[in-house]
Design a protein that fits this description.
Blueprint (H helix, E strand, L loop, with lengths): L4 H10 L6 E9 L2 E8 L3 E8 L6 E4 L14 H9 L4 E6 L6 E8 L2 E8 L6 E5 L5 E4 L44 H49 L3 H13 L4
Antiparallel strand pairs: 1-2, 2-3, 3-4, 5-6, 6-7, 7-8, 8-9
């Protein structure tokens, strides 16, 4: 389950992002970005951005994904390293009722607006200039005009989030743990989910291997049974052959 806007709001409240520096950007997989953040007051922490359709989310992380093998440097990650790595986050906000995070980042004299849209299957990370012109996007979607050079409209009037104002206020924050931060709680919840998903995939793989082996064994057994049926009169054939061989001269 993806985060709702109230949970995103709480996560942002716990993080000191305004005034922080983006020291490094890595991409562990095609749907995940990790920003290594440094804030002079609170220190360093990795910020995970996941656009997995069923679990889109943003939170600090401690599980060490930055240490895992990364993808070959992808186009958008390369762009972000050039454009905002080493930059300072001036502002970080979330429009009320929307699962969108907006970061205003300065690097040297360049200002960049980074939109992190956590809409499940329509999620994206989009960088624009201060005029709203798209510089690049994690997922380029020409049909939605989410490509370089197009004007970016963060919230479309026809989007599911805008269909009913009342729907914005029915979401509730999931049960809070007393002994850890909400960021840590969310990280642990999704880590457990990922482990369960990995286990399920492993079981499915094992089941497939087992079924393939069983099919091969059944085929071999069928062939052996056929050979056995064909050899049931072996002794009779052997006796006949012996008689023929003994009397071959006649």
């Amino acid at each position: 389950m993806s985060l709702n806007w109230k949970e995103i709001d709480l996560i942002l409240e716990e993080l000191e992002l305004p005034g922080a520096y983006i020291q490094k950007i890595v991409q562990p997989d095609f749907q995940t970005l990790i920003f290594n953040i440094y804030h002079p007051a609170s220190g360093r922490f990795p910020l995970l951005i996941s656009l997995e359709p069923a679990s889109s989310r943003l939170h600090s992380t401690t599980i060490g994904k930055t240490e895992k093998k990364q993808l070959k440097l992808q186009r958008f990650a390369q762009f972000l390293r050039s454009r905002i790595q080493g930059g300072r986050i001036l502002e970080c906000s979330q429009p009320e009722g929307e699962r969108i995070i907006v970061m205003k980042i300065r690097k040297a004299e360049e200002l960049t607006l980074l939109y992190i849209r956590l809409w499940g299957g329509a999620g994206n990370v989009i960088a624009t200039d201060t005029n709203g012109v798209i510089l690049d996007a994690l997922f380029r979607r020409p049909a939605k005009k989410e490509v370089s050079g197009q004007e970016f409209i963060p919230i479309l009037p026809s989007s599911p989030q805008k269909n009913s104002q009342s729907k914005k206020y029915i979401y509730e924050i999931r049960h809070r743990a007393d002994d850890i931060s909400f960021n840590r709680q969310i990280e642990e919840a999704y880590s457990r989910r990922d482990r369960n998903v990995d286990l399920e995939k492993l079981l499915q793989t094992a089941e497939k291997v087992f079924q393939n082996q069983m099919e091969k064994l059944n085929l071999s057994l069928s062939k052996l049974c056929e050979r056995l049926r064909n050899s049931e009169q072996f002794e009779q054939y052997k006796s006949t052959a012996d008689l023929l061989a003994a009397n071959a001269h006649t």
